[in-house]
Amino acid sequence: QVQLQESGPGLVKPSQTLSLTCTVSGGSITTSHYYWSWIRQPPGKGLEWMGAIAYDGSTYYSPSLKSHTSISRDTSKDQFSLQLSSVTPEDTAVYYCARVGGWYPDYWGQGTQVTVSS
Known about the structure:
By secondary structure, the chain is mostly beta strands. The chain has no helices and eleven strands.
């Protein structure tokens, strides 16, 4: 059973960088052909796919977020991370990490609330 767990600060100041880590257990992030994604849901809005890092280390980003988003990984720890720079209050959301093996995620983390506020 694959499990994902997000970790990181719950409060970030405007203009700073939001950093989150997803720790995977019960599976390896290098297993073909899975894509490890970050997805967020702002209050009162739908889910937004932010980007992903593939089993081979390739990265993919939402065009609307690409300029200030970076996803990396630590294969020795089966972790992948999100960095979102120059955040604004509009980046307040519940952030999820998820595994995608087809068109849709099959495993999700529980989500972590991140609030951008001074």
